[in-house]
Amino acid sequence: MGLYLGLDSSTQSLSAMIVDSDSGRVVLDESVNFGKALPQYGSPSGFLPNDDAQLKHADPLMWVEALDLLLGQLKATGTDFGAVDGISGAGQQHGSVYLKQRLSEVAAWDPSRDLASQVRPLLSRPSSPIWMDSSTSAECREIAAAVGGDARVVTLSGSRAIERFTGPQIRAFYKREPAAYAATREIHLVSSFFASLLSGGSAGIDQGDGAGMNLLDLSTGTWSPELVAATAPGLGEKLPRAVASRTQVGEIASYFVKKYGFRPGTPIIAFTGDNPSSLVGMGATDPGTAVISMGTSDTVFAAMRKPHTDPRGFGHVFGNPAGGFMCLICFANGSLARERVAERLGLSWDAFARAILEETQPGNQGNLLLPFFIPEMTPKLLAPKVELFGSERFVGWQEPAALARAIVEAQALSMQRHSDWIGEQPRLIRVTGGASKNRGIRQVLADVFGAEIRALSVGNASALGGALRAAEAVGKVPFASLYEAFAATDPASNVSPSAGATAAYAELRQKFVERLTALGA
Ligand code: ADP
Ligand code: XUL
Questions:
Q1: Across-strand partners of 518?
Q2: Could you tell me if the CB of 295 is within 6 A of ligand 2?
Q3: Could you tell me if 171 and 232 are in contact, meaning their C-beta atoms sit under 8 angstroms apart?
Q4: Is the Cα dihedral 212, 215, 217, 223 positive or negative?
Q5: Pocket flag, ligand 2, residue 12 (CB < 6 Å)
Q6: Residue 93: CB within 6 Å of ligand 2?
Q7: Using CA atoms, how far apart are residues 448 and 504, in angstroms rounded to an integer?
């Protein structure tokens, strides 16, 4: 029982949430947006611009500086970190940080200096490839070939070799910059990097998030010697250990005690990926509840008892922080694609919702948009592909309301098609992430899936998941009672399928699949 802090370092922001497990209340919920708060990193959407659409990196020092910034702001506004009994959190999945020295061998962080200036000299690679990077197709093929084919990679790791996954990214680093790779002593995921910063040591990689690396053997929860050898020489010595989600990976470093007033000895529980963390925050760690998260990426996920893989090869099996597994399908063209359309049409999010709810109808009179504004992993399209089909005015970008509906309908149709391997069509879906606040978007999901849509009362499911995981591991509060208190849905946001929606999508769905097939996707 007590107060638990959850942190979430996602693509665009760092968030902190504190829950009080005694009163069942969220007592703090704050974020810093990287682009807005730290413009000096030149990353308005959380990553560095690059002429090559397949290369997507972020500056890890931006994440480190955001940690100091957020904790400093919270302390200045009266947050008593000394009352926090345990800490856990999450990071955007797959992104990796490369260090010249093991963090366990680094002298304690000096509280008279900022953290970023102390981390800078430790980096063997100045930028971190993130989940949006799709530049490693050759490396994926090489890894699969080295272990005997795609099926072997799936059997071992739960996914095919995937461009954004950390193993192929590490192999690309080894091939493109062999000297810097050789000088690397430790490689972290974003999640384990944050746990390491906070504990002032080398925190282990959570098995749930580690499953997004094409390096973990799902059947043992340890690094697969076969995959490690296929990825890059000497990699085994550079990986922190893989740990179960409930593992205490350290205690809060004295830097945070002296600077922000944390209590010495405060336990740090392994950080996980933002999606596994949201599975907890959504109260969905038991099979039966489907979740759609619409942050920077859109993801569809659900708990599963036994690993079961996507025959099309796009879906993944990750570890479920509460035990067992989860399946996940990720779409790169989530919020950033919706933003492109809203900006081009000059629509605020409110106007975007009104356009969907008041000015257009399910099925959009047959107007269809292929929504791949950036390279897409599901389906795999290494180059952007935006195509419009329908009325002359629609195709000429002259119908703002129909265009707003079209992008969301296409995204929902894609989510539905690419999650069909999970099992039965869900009748109830829980939604989270920035775009889930939009009633128009929720309505299209309800109509396309023919499902009831429920949104959580708490906005940030991933940060909440961090706090709940700390409460469970440190305070021994069972997940079931935490879900009752914190994972409630907000009845005001409930959305049901509109009458006639099922029929309205029969034709559009078929048209969409034909267009995808024509693209070879
Ligand atoms: P992440 O966790 O990946 O950093 P968030 O879950 O914070 O992302 O969501 C941020 C995104 O949410 C922004 O890119 C923005 O486009 C989108 N967003 C925020 N509010 C709305 C809204 N009312 N309607 C649609 N999209 C929204
Ligand atoms: C999941 C994925 C993204 C990131 C960023 O596989 O790549 O959802 O975790 O949120």
A1: none
A2: yes
A3: yes
A4: negative
A5: no
A6: yes
A7: 9
Partners of 455 in beta bridges: 431
Q: Which of 259, 254, 407, 434 is nearest to 333 (CA)?
A: 407
Sign of CA dihedral 357, 363, 367, 369: positive
Cβ pair 37, 30 in contact under 8 A = no
Residue type, 159: S
Strand partners, 389: 368
Q: Which of 141, 169, 165 is nearest to 232 (CA)?
A: 169
Q: Determine what percent of the chain falls in helix, strand and coil, rounding each to the nearest 5.
A: 45, 20, 35
Q: Where are the beta strands (DSSP E) in 34-160?
A: 57-58, 84-91, 96-99, 128-129
Asked if 129 contacts 59 with a C-beta cutoff of 8 angstroms, the reply is no
Are the beta carbons of 69 and 215 closer than 8 angstroms? no
* Average pLDDT value for residue range 360-379: 97
| Helix or strand (DSSP H, E) at 314 | none
Report the pLDDT value the prediction gives residue 26, as an integer from 0 to 100.
Answer: 97
| Residue with tokens 């949006």, as numbered in its chain | 132
Neighbours of 393 (CB within 10 A): 12
3-state secondary structure of 445: helix
φ, ψ for residue 39, nearest 5 deg? -65, -20
Q: How confident is the model at residue 368 (pLDDT cuts 50, 70, 90)?
A: very high
> Hey, whose CA ends up nearest to atom 10 of ligand 2?
92
Q: How far is CA 371 from CA 126, 437, 515, in A?
A: 32, 21, 11
By most ligand atoms within 8 Å of CB, the mutation choice from 11, 12, 190, 275 for ligand 1 is 12
Of all ligands present, the nearest one to the C-alpha of 214 is 2
- Ligand 2 nearest-atom number relative to CA 299: 8
Contact 28, 74 (CB under 8 A): yes
Asked if 255 contacts 200 with a C-beta cutoff of 8 angstroms, the reply is yes
Per-residue pLDDT tens digits for 81-100? 999 999 999 999 999 999 99
**pLDDT tier at 424, thresholds 50, 70, 90:** confident
Residue nearest to atom 8 of ligand 2 (CA): 297
Write out the DSSP string of 344-388: HHT--HHHHHHHHHHS--TTGGG-EEEEESS-BTTTTBSS-EEEE
Q: What is the pLDDT of residue 307?
A: 87
Concatenating the DSSP letter of every residue in 152-181 gives HHHHHHSS---TTSHHHHHHHHHHH-HHHH
pLDDT score recorded for residue 358: 98
Residue 273 beta carbon below 6 angstroms from any ligand 2 atom: yes
Ligand 1 and 335: CB distance under 6 A: yes
Ligand nearest to the CA of 56: 2
Within 10 angstroms of residue 161's Cβ, the number of other Cβ atoms is 28
